[in-house]
Design brief:
The structure is a homodimer.
Chain A lengths: L5 E4 L5 H9 L7 H17 L1 H12 L10 E2 L1 H9 L3 H19 L6 E4 L5 E8 L2 E5 L8 H14 L3 E5 L9 H10 L3 E3 L3 H10 L9 E3 L4 H10 L4 E2 L7 E6 L5 H12 L6 E6 L2 H15 L5 H11 L1 E4 L3 H11 L3 E5 L3 H4 L8 E4 L5 H6 L25 E8 L2 H17 L3 H11 L9
Parallel strand pairs in A: 1-12, 5-6, 5-8, 6-7, 8-9, 10-11, 10-13, 11-12, 13-14
Antiparallel strand pairs in A: 2-7, 3-4, 4-15
């Protein structure tokens, strides 16, 4: 297998252009997918369960006459969990417990304060009523993803978490079902694709309408989420997964090579980049890549990903590495250096930062505790890991006392007249009291 | 002027259908706008300032040859502020100070915890580097909107807030510029439309690229924000503004009528609904509407809005009013009752809740403190008022100690093998140490 990977140096005269070309990623939207998804959503909105059954038969080869048969009963989830191999079950439990412990710290609380005149202001934080969790079927069916999406929702206090998962030809993934049971998912339906997203967004007789849809999916699912957004909340639309490793050259080169592989094995578009000031270490990592490649079961995917989108980049120093990292705003950032605390403050944007040589990304993917759903493609500049905050919402509370309204009413009226909104002004003036009114009717 | 407004009662047999029809709102997207905006964005991305100047000349009739002339210097902002009428300036200052005080309570702090084996986990909260604020020109130029968008960004710690505001035929709104100065906006450019959004999203030689774009705009601006999302963060795409008033019949009917007007005067699509169990009070409000209508400068807009989208609805009791409100998830919710604290707990979804007869929505629009940018069209089911949290982002921090990595590595490897991701597993196993490794190369 090829172990080709781009080598760059920030000292090259054309480095900026090379670096930009390496990072260039623009999501391609397929007009065929867009129109197919529009049709599917329209059908599910207008024909409900009937359309859902038809698409499930057509796309998943699951033919049931009654939509109720699409639901997996809770005891089947429990049975799946109970039947797991002991060691796998224990690992899943450890992961769930750690993810829950971390996310419990994210719960936002309501607050309120009272001013001298009795006016009270506050922010009330409440969970969403109902969340939908999309879980892909087939190859990319990841139990860890069920935990990472469902646990924050339950920690937030969401009453009902509805999971949808396609079961092509009726094949169910018992580990996914076990994870659903462990995470506290309330109901599971064996539907997928754009039709499942439409059902969650608008509701059918069988599938309840949710307030937000989260979870990964293929191009049809992503397009469907984009289209139903507004009727329902959605999480981010993820791009290909990426890792950026900043290494001081002191970590075992095999470890770094394997960390690059672990990202590359996701798919051909995944991106793995290493920044290091030590050219000799980059050579070692390249040698490790060459030596380890053929031991990897997913070598074909890894080789393609490294060849097309990977890079080993020699930088001037770790300061420059941090500056380049801030330009990338990576999804996963390994700070594989001896003294990560000395450098972490220079990193302004990243989904998750893995500090020190022992913190491989894979620990975070499964069980460290923080979420593995992270902002991709530079969106860490403005967005955050999936968290409890994605399943809570805020309402402002305003209680103007009689005295408070006199003061606020005059200010509001002045500004409203300034903006040419006289009904706003008069509504405020009523609260000031007749003698304060500027305009009497 | 007509003072027609729909009367409904929850006791009617067809109430559910009537209620649903009243609320039905689906954003219409215009293919002409979509393609025009796509062209504008493409031009600004590829030709930068040149395209920006050309569009500004064509759409705003502002013809400058040097893009630098599009910037309004900071001292002009200060002069605008200093030249305000004393009373208006004082009102603007009070509003800014109150908005700032409220939003300071929204600042999220970083946190971290250490486990027994030395593993550290945390969440780092940092501000966005740079935010863009779109301010409409012409009629809808609202200084209050400048405060509501810019203050949270500055409270969050955003280093640079870039404001864009079109100045059709070169006319600048001094109150808007004064508000920008007061809110601490860093730079102001006189550009607007899709071209301004594109410039903020991708940067030009003159206008710096931002990380997130907030602020209201017309259909072109909304479509442009939708298209650049991903390259940059955006706030919500707002639908028409709405108010729902729940009244026990004890508030002055004129006050309630004027509160309905204050929403209706925004535009013909704005929605004003009153829920009250007291039919006689609904009659009084209807009489107030009739009497007050002709005194309103914006009576034409108000009458159209009330006729097409307004309603006075008799409910069985306040419990039913709360249940209906939860179905609507209103942007603005006035709980105009004698004892609002007894009822507020039953209201699950709303952008802002105005409690008691003195808390008119208009107080919140200008100066109570909470933000006036609120989720519309039922999106309060899953989203929140604009806030400091929209200008902060989180990064997860994971520092696995050597001992911690042994435990986590075994769990991660087990789960990774279960998901068919062997490079993930081996990357974790490296951190466990050779003797623990399941698969030796």
């Amino acid at each position: 297998m090829s172990s080709q990977i781009r080598r760059l140096s920030s000292a090259q005269s054309d480095f900026k252009a090379q670096f930009r070309a390496l990072l260039a990623y623009e999501e391609q939207r397929d007009p065929h997918v867009e129109s197919a998804v529009a049709d599917i959503i329209h059908a599910v909105r207008t024909k409900g369960d009937e359309a859902l059954l038809e698409y499930t038969k057509r796309f998943d080869r699951v033919d049931v006459s009654d939509a109720a048969a699409l639901e997996i009963p809770k005891d089947e989830l429990k049975r799946a969990f109970d039947s797991l191999d002991d060691s796998l079950r224990a690992s899943l439990e450890t992961a769930a417990q750690r993810v829950r412990a971390f996310h419990e710290r994210q719960v936002a609380e309501s607050w309120e304060y009272t001013e001298a005149d009795g006016t009270r202001l506050g922010q009330r934080v409440t969970p969403l009523d109902r969340a939908g969790l999309y879980v892909p079927g087939g190859k990319a069916a990841y139990p860890s993803s069920v935990l990472m999406n469902a646990v924050p929702a339950k920690v937030a206090g969401v009453q009902e978490v509805i999971m949808v998962v396609p079961t092509p030809s009726g094949v169910r993934n018992p580990i996914v079902l076990a994870a659903a049971w462990l995470a506290g998912v309330d109901r599971v339906f064996t539907v997928g694709g754009a039709q499942a997203v439409a059902a969650l967004a608008y509701g059918t007789d069988t599938i309840p309408r949710v307030d937000k849809i989260v979870g990964p999916g293929n191009a049809y699912v992503a397009e469907a989420k984009r289209r139903v957004f507004g009727a329902v909340g959605i999480d981010m639309i993820a791009g290909p997964s990426e890792i950026l490793i900043i290494c001081d050259g002191k970590t075992d080169a095999d470890w770094i090579a394997m960390d690059l592989f672990s990202q590359a094995e996701h798919d051909e578009m995944a991106q793995s980049i290493l920044l290091c000031p030590d050219a000799a270490f980059l050579d070692q990592v390249q040698a490790s890549i060459k030596r380890l490649m053929d031991t990897m079961p997913r070598a074909t995917v890894i080789a393609t990903s490294l060849k097309n989108r990977g890079a080993l980049i020699q930088v001037k120093d770790l300061d420059e590495a941090c500056a380049l990292s801030n330009e990338i705003a990576p999804e996963h950032l390994e700070l594989s250096v001896q003294d990560p605390d000395a450098w972490v403050g220079k990193l302004r944007h990243a989904g998750a930062i893995f500090m020190g040589p022992y913190s491989s990304e894979s620990l975070g993917d499964y069980c460290a505790g923080p979420n593995h759903v992270l902002p991709t493609a530079g969106t860490a500049r403005f967005s955050s890991p999936l968290g409890v905050y994605d399943f809570q919402k805020r309402s402002s509370l305003i209680f103007a006392s009689r005295d408070g309204a006199r003061v606020l009413g005059e200010v509001a009226a002045e500004l409203a007249y300034g903006e040419g909104l006289p009904a706003h002004a008069r509504s405020a003036e009523y609260r000031v009291g007749p003698k304060f009114r500027k305009n009497q009717e």
